[in-house]
Specification:
mainly alpha, 254 residues, two-stranded antiparallel sheet, single chain, 64% helix
Length: 254
């Protein structure tokens, strides 16, 4: 069992689970990102090992993984220190998840969807030119799942994510395809927020327009439809940040 001091942040005392290294990584990463170490020095490896009741090797590996994610660095005569948030790897899905778990941030949602509007319309245009039969089936399957979710027969978040990830993959651009994990992680929070304002799931017609343009090979239409879809989300988020849950946005999801 872990032997923990009483002055540690609550997140530090969370169970580590079966995989001690990843459990410790998750606990420490969340504690760093959510600001539990803002007023205290980051513990030494020996202190962490003692606090969590694990070996030094487990602690060392978790610290190495956090360093690779840009959250920590080792400095001569200073030990391990927390890096400023500008150095964090925001494309790392663990870092992004920890960011989304801390105090809800409209600004973070805006930044994320600004990135999406710069990436996904071009991915849709590429998909219109390069998607194969299997890709088109995956996009259609994602759209069908969204329709099923409207009828309460599928999960609306998973269905929406499946649609967008299928398009990223259909672009045949490996760099765009790498955004699938970022989209799958952050889109969950974005969709929950926009759907809470709107009171229903994503606009199926908007997604159908994207899928149809890709299926017919119309790159310009696919780009425009995807841009419009995500821009509507940015508009909804902006309205929601002003009117909170009482906002009167017309569209949600995506």
């Amino acid at each position: 069992m872990s032997t923990l001091t009483t002055d540690l942040p609550l997140l530090d005392r969370a169970p580590l689970g079966r995989n001690l290294t990843y459990g410790m990584l998750d606990n420490l990463g969340r504690a760093i990102v959510t600001g539990h170490y803002e007023q205290r020095s980051f513990p030494t490896e020996a202190e962490l090992a003692r606090q969590h009741g694990v070996s030094r090797s487990v602690t060392r590996e978790a610290v190495k993984m956090l360093t690779a994610k840009g959250l920590l660095s080792a400095r001569p005569r200073q030990g391990t220190v927390i890096q400023p948030s500008c150095n964090w790897n925001l494309f790392d899905t663990d870092v992004l998840r920890w960011l989304l778990e801390r105090k809800f941030s409209i600004e973070l949602l805006v930044h994320f969807n600004q990135l999406r509007v710069a990436i996904e319309p071009e991915a849709a245009a590429l998909a219109a030119g390069f998607a194969g039969p299997g890709d088109l089936r995956d996009i259609a399957a994602g759209l069908e799942r969204m329709r099923a979710a409207e009828a309460g027969e599928d999960d609306p978040l998973d269905a929406d994510i499946a649609f967008h990830v299928a398009i990223l993959r259909a672009s045949k651009n490996p760099f765009y395809a790498q955004f699938r994990d970022v989209v799958a992680t952050a889109l969950r929070t974005s969709i929950r927020f926009t759907n809470r304002i709107k009171g229903r799931t994503a606009n199926i017609a908007d997604h159908e327009a994207v899928a149809e343009a890709i299926a017919t090979g119309d790159a310009a239409a696919a780009r425009a439809a995807m841009h419009r879809l995500i821009q509507d989300v940015l508009t909804l988020i902006d309205g929601g940040s002003i009117a909170s849950a009482g906002g009167q946005g017309e569209r949600g999801g995506t």
